[in-house]
Amino acid sequence: MAENIQLYLSEFKYIIPELIIALGIIALIALDLIFYNKKAFLKTAFAVIIVLSSACSLLFLEHSHSPVFYNSLFPNQPSVLFRLLADFTMLAVLIFWKTTETDKRNDTTELPFLWLSVLFAAHFLCISNNWLMVFLSIEMLSISSYILLGIGFKKKNIEAAFKYLVFGALSSGIMVFGISLILADVQNLYFSGFEFSYHAAFENLDLMSIGLLMAFAGIFFKLSLFPFHFWVPDVYQGSSLPFMLMVSSIPKIAAFGFFCSQFLIIWPGDVDFTQFSNLIASIGIISIIWGNLSALRQDSFARLFAYSGIAQAGFMILALVNGYDGILKLEIFLSLYVFMNIIVFISANQIDSKSSNLKISDFAGLGVKNIFFALAFLIAMIALIGLPPTGGFTAKFIILSGLFEWYSSVEMNFRLIIFILAIINVVISLFYYLKIPYFMFFKSSQMPFKAVLPINFILILISTAILIISFVFFSHYKQLIIAIGADII
Amino acid sequence: MANHLLSSLVLIPLIGSLLFLILPLKQERAIQWLNLGFSLLLFILIAFIGISEYQNLQELSKYGDVLLIEKWEWFRFSVGSFGEVSIDYFLGLDGINFPLIILSGVILVIGAIFSFEIKNQVKGYMALYQLISAAIIGSFLALDFFLFYLFFEFMLLPMFFLIGIWGGPRREYASIKFFIYTLFGSLFILAAMIILNISTFDMGKTALESASFLEEGLIHGFNLFEYSDQNSILKNSPLDAKSAYGFWSESIRYWAFWALILGFMIKLPAVPLHTWLPDAHVEAPTPVSIILAALLLKIGAYGIIRIALPVFPDIFMNSLTVLGIIGVISIVYGGMNALAMKDLKKMIAYSSVSHIGFVLLGLAAFNIEGLIGANYQLVSHGLISAMLFILAGVIYRRTGSRDISHYSGLNAKMPIYASFTLLAFLAGMGLPGFSGFIAEVLILIGAFGASMQNGISIWLPILGLLGIFISAAYFLWTMQRMFFGKFSLINSSWVEKIKDLENYEKFSLMALVFFALLIGIFPSLIIDISEISIQNLINQIQLK
To answer: What gap in Å lies between CA A226 and CA A250, rounded to an integer?
Structure first.
């Protein structure tokens, strides 16, 4: 018994970042008891410090080489990159949220507390090695998000939160049902340690594979992939810009973190990847086409980036068609995508909109009013389309070449068509991404430009610099990604 | 130092562009002169390279030999069981790109002179001007496909803004049309590039670094010279002629070739993919029109000569008739359109389409005369189209109208303008003595020669000849309508605005006429150089 406790205690060293966040959440509640409805800035600063220390501890973390806590968690090295990215995004979200905060009623402790619980759930999703843990993390991530979205107390916030809740509950239900089928078939819920039957799932169509498909509903919901993407535009439209920044990045980071560092990494070499890769490629390409074609007709900023987020998620999952080889490509693309999002949503905050919904046409004249923000925004758009001179181009290029590699490994016209469609969709995405620079540089307007806060300025500057530096020094950028999230071979 | 000469050709404009963004210069004049200074510096450097390397260029012994080579690895990434992909920074000079580099040096200076006409947001304009200069020079010099593609894509955005912000009344439509057409084309090139990269391996690098030629040790490169060696194609890869890979009953090789050709034809532009060109030209300000016509279009043709032809010689040889037909359609259809245009600049834009059609005809001839002629036509058309667009800009700047029917008898008020127009029109028609004559004669000799030896049909060069007659018709007819007869203007208030050429206009036109006459009278200046490299290229292909 004592030995067991000792073993447990020694395993805590693998999840120090998560412990820091958990203790931070408790401390925040304590702070709230002492300074009720006061010192809002102090509480946010405390949350920022927690996120920072979690990120720092990640860099010096000892990685586990086998699952810990009775195989429920597996904090391996590939998950580090995703956890770090989630920390970084949350840092940007917290700073951004604090600078946009105008409504005094929102100045409560709940918000930093909820932001941190989103981060906590994202961390846990990256390291869960057990379907139950996956479910718990996804639920925690979702429930915190529902409240964060609804806490604006305006009609549109509540409406969006309700839609989010309904779709989330539906996909959670499907997921639990799938998990129960898996449990019925293989009698356990672990990915590794015990024999998780990849064989059973992917070699013969039976209960197991149906269960697995359903279990992926929750993951696809978080990734905003077809056919679980219907919530995205409404949620974006009803939310504030900091929430959009969070919801466009952190669920994707967490879900891909789980997908890459837990699910794919232990894929047995002798199990055929063909069927599964065909499935994810189809889902990816449908998401891309659906997202792009819907985005074409939008004139609201939120809806446009909601649909573009669906398309980008589809593109990211195409990186994984080669299985294990695609993880690095995905990591590079995802890490750059976070910086693109930071530029987009923080710059958008500088626009004064007449109506409650930001329109694309509200960007008119930004090129004259503030060339710095306009250029940064332009670079983010170029990176989202995937054009040089941004890292977005190189990242997209390696994913596309991976797709062709996938075709040339098994001759199948279906795969070539997916490759061609993926390339054609770059042109389609050009139409709507270029709409905003078009208004910024070609139109003029009298709308005032909000004063820029230095901290937002710095965030945008860093992100823009990273997008360009990662292109010129791609080799070094890749080495950095490998150093942080190196594989376990 | 000598090792970084070519890089500095790309870096000088790039540094210039950054300087314009950073420097807190307020005086427009200073910025304009600085811009001209950068372009002149570039020109001097190019002239220096041209003079010092002229002899060496004639001594290149095989395809793949380049001068002033700069090559180092940029980055590589692993593709799992497929080995590694390696991307090089690879610049070099040979007889195929050398004439185009010289042309760029000349045209960029002329463009910088006419950039003095830009009055609003000068700083942004000049930054974009230098940026696009760097991209143009870079894409002519790049010998790594990936690097070429980067520069090729990199031209789009500056051009988009140059037309879209400083253009005419319908600039937004024109710039977006330009952007979408060209990006659409370049994505086909991207697809072909990925296919080439995955299906071939870099023999030099693999031999150097890996002990075995097994799959996992292979290094996939983007080296265009390696691609031209058919041994670099992997067995059973989609590009292997004997593999089972195919799509719609044609091989992947076939589709990759046509993807490349389609991409470059949009840039070229060949009929029926040309519709972006007249719009872009009409809306673009004069200096941008000059760069667009004289340099940007050349990159499409250069891409075919440099990439599509050496990499897929077998399919190229099977597609000669199709290419020739597209070329002839461009010549005739472009000419017919030019004949019908009321807008002077549109007329010139369509004459560009017609002249560029000759390049395709020369390529379709696929013999040494045709290929040299095609390469020569690129330089010649660069000089002549720059002249023509300057002339169209002159009248537009004075009156704000480019309608041919609005003017008559301009000869009386603007004699110098009239004589330069006559010279430029004669050069455009291909009068002996001007560069256009040599180019068109070489291409027609090549095409007739090819039709003698079971190549293309004899009707293609005959219809090409018809194109020359059409060009004489539209140029002379325009001359007659605008310059001869009784002096009259549709709007009498224009009379005091109509002044003859200013000094900078005279100087630029004189320089262009000088170069057009120089290479028209001494064609060997260019032919001597390109002949060697093109002969090497043909030898390389026929070795297979």
So the answer is: 18
